[in-house]
Amino acid sequence: MTTRQHDASVYEEIQTSERFRELRSRFRRWVFPMTVAFLAWYVLYVIMSGFARDFMGTKLFGNINVALVFGILQFVSTFLIAWAYSRHAARKLDPLADELRHEVEEKTAE
């Protein structure tokens, strides 16, 4: 078996392992719902801007209206999601990914 074939078989073995499936599952359980939630929030903003102009144009104070606050909250939510994902990854994904990486490195070094 050539080195390239050996490396491929190691990766295939890791990919079919229970720990890799768990890593993928942890990733998907967090990312998919968060993506749906963020897209729903974004679409709400766009729909409200198009169809609820009176509401979005409501002045809150000075020249600040509901649309501007919603727009700023889009940025805030993006940063909060990025921060939350980095915490999730550090606690739930990275330790398992590191174990799998070390396992691959050991097996490909043989």
From TrEMBL:
Key word Heme present: no
Signal sequence residues: none
Transmembrane segments: 30-52, 64-85
Annotated keywords: Membrane, Transmembrane, Transmembrane helix
UniProt xrefs under InterPro entries: DUF485
Domain of life: Bacteria
Pfam families: DUF485
Protein name according to UniProt: DUF485 domain-containing protein
Source organism (scientific name): Microtetraspora malaysiensis
